[in-house]
């Protein structure tokens, strides 16, 4: 969709309460009354101090312990392993799809090849009987020679192992099909991006990948870039 992003998917279920986020508003209202762990993975809102405070205010009079987890900088090994697993699965699915489509693609090419052979056969129709028999024999031998080669190639396709390249393994994250944040949303809010702190009301702020100082420098440099 026009406003589609990973942070705010432009989903259309054809159900009004889902499409206009009515269900989400209801869940947001009752969530503070439910004694269970909750995760709020909203990238843009979590980077804007005013919106973080609004989210915390909903849980102010509850028994919830609020925690902000900052994932910024060089990912840890567990995350890289997870990302590589997703990338490998996508690559395997693509290879399987191409392999499954190969026979149909080949069948679509065969009539044209056959027509070319028929034309060639018609052109030599006036030649002698012995010559025609010789050509038929040569064609049979050619088909016999092609069959093992074709089978060998198909076997290689079946046995080919799909792996990530060194370049793919070196990537800190994967590129999603849709942007994590829409460019218009980003241009509107990026100047207000900041890191969370206990002063905002969090019980704990954890920096999972890199230290707070390093994260603050990276975010500042990114905003100013």
TrEMBL record:
<feature type="region of interest" description="Disordered">
    <location>
        <begin position="97"/>
        <end position="176"/>
    </location>
</feature>
<protein>
    <submittedName>
        <fullName>Uncharacterized protein</fullName>
    </submittedName>
</protein>
<feature type="compositionally biased region" description="Basic and acidic residues">
    <location>
        <begin position="106"/>
        <end position="123"/>
    </location>
</feature>
<feature type="compositionally biased region" description="Basic and acidic residues">
    <location>
        <begin position="132"/>
        <end position="171"/>
    </location>
</feature>
